[in-house]
Amino acid sequence: MANVDILVVEDETPIREMLRLVLEQASFTVRTAPDVQSALKALETRLPDLILLDWMLPGISGIDWAEKLRHDTTYSDIPIILLTARGEEEDKVVGLDTGADDYITKPFSPRELIARINAVLRRFGKGGKPVLIQVGGIVLDPEQHRLHIDHKPVELSPTEYRLLEFFITHPDKVYSRTQLLDRVWGRNTYIEERTVDVHIRRLRKILAEFGRDAMIQTVRGFGYRFSTQPH
Ligand code: CA
Predict the structure, then answer these.
(1) Model confidence over 141-157: pLDDT tens digits?
(2) Rounded distance from Cα 12 to ligand 1 centre (Å)
(3) Cα(53) to centroid of ligand 1, in Å?
(4) Nearest to 122 by CA among 104, 148, 145
């Protein structure tokens, strides 16, 4: 794997150091900053491959900075993962167009964090490190884009693969069709929302062969949720 450079912006020292440790153990190159001002200096030195950005920072908040970066052509290509606290922030971030490419709610496991980072890096063609993703007998190999359910290989189109990967790495949360288009098909794609339904239907059909179709739930008037406890 090429050297992947991650900039961590987090004001709380213990969390910042924990993030550094977890990311370094996953072989990422890590730089840290306690606030946006220091983060800007770090950007001037070298552009990172990804920014892990805390929402609540002294001075300019993470969410405001993400928005600014998104509109600055020098920085707009850097993927951003926003760190949020459970509760109100989490609710807000789901409903907002934050300028972030993903968000992760504290507290999170190192495994979840690394899986999210790798998924975002792959979406941006930055070659995240392959780690098998699994939930309840469903196993995804992000490197080979292979799916196994109950140890049986399953054929999947690239779009359905990405959709399933997104769902599995973002379980038990509701996403609108627009959000799914954004996260799975990519920013700035102009595809009809109906396309999402078509791919969901295909994915459900595949999962139905293994009695897993109830994992993809329709949330009327909003969108879809991948449930790890469908019953
Ligand atoms: Ca904070």
Answers:
(1) 877 888 999 999 999 99
(2) 6
(3) 9
(4) 145
